Amino acid sequence: MKEEYSQLVSDYLSLLQTGEGADFVLASKDGIELKVHKNILALRWPWFSHLISAGMKEAQEGKTFFYFNKNFGNTHIY
């Protein structure tokens, strides 16, 4: 079971690092863009889930802006 969990974590990290299949962008005001997967983010982040389900402008555009640094994805997404 631990190996399966480890592989799952590795697979999700690969998606984050490569941006493969990403369908949304988290962008900072200083130009950092993090390509993400809406479904995964919505499962882990209630605010983001609301943004998507409410049909807000950002959900329709596929992009929203945040204040974060280049290490954001490594420390806050999962």
Question: What do you see in this structure?
Answer:
- There is one protein chain.
- Helices cover 54% and strands 17% of the residues.
- It is an alpha+beta fold and 78 residues long.
- A three-stranded mixed sheet has the order 2-1-3.
- α2 packs across α3 (46-53).
- It is globular.
- The chain starts with a helix and ends with a helix.
- The model has no long low-confidence stretch (mean pLDDT 81).
Write the layout of secondary structure elements.
Blueprint (H helix, E strand, L loop, with lengths): L1 H17 L5 E5 L4 E4 L1 H7 L1 H8 L3 H5 L1 E4 L5 H5 L2
Parallel strand pairs: 1-3
Antiparallel strand pairs: 1-2
List keywords for this structure.
78 residues, 5 helices
Short structural description:
By secondary structure, this protein is an alpha+beta fold. The chain has 5 helices and 3 strands, in the order αββαααβα.
Put simply, the count of helices is 5
Structural class: alpha+beta
- Across the major sheet, the strand order is 2-1-3
Mean pLDDT across all residues, rounded? Answer: 81
Rg over alpha carbons:
13 Å
Query: Could you tell me the strand content as a percent range?
Result: 15-25%
Assembly type of the chains comes to single chain
> Helix and strand succession?
HEEHHHEH
Biggest beta sheet attributes: 3 strands, mixed
Unreliable stretches (pLDDT < 50, length at least 5) are: none
Envelope shape: globular
Q: How helix-rich are the residues, as a percent range? A: 40-55%
N-to-C terminal Cα separation, in Å? 19 Å
Give me the count of strands. Answer: 3
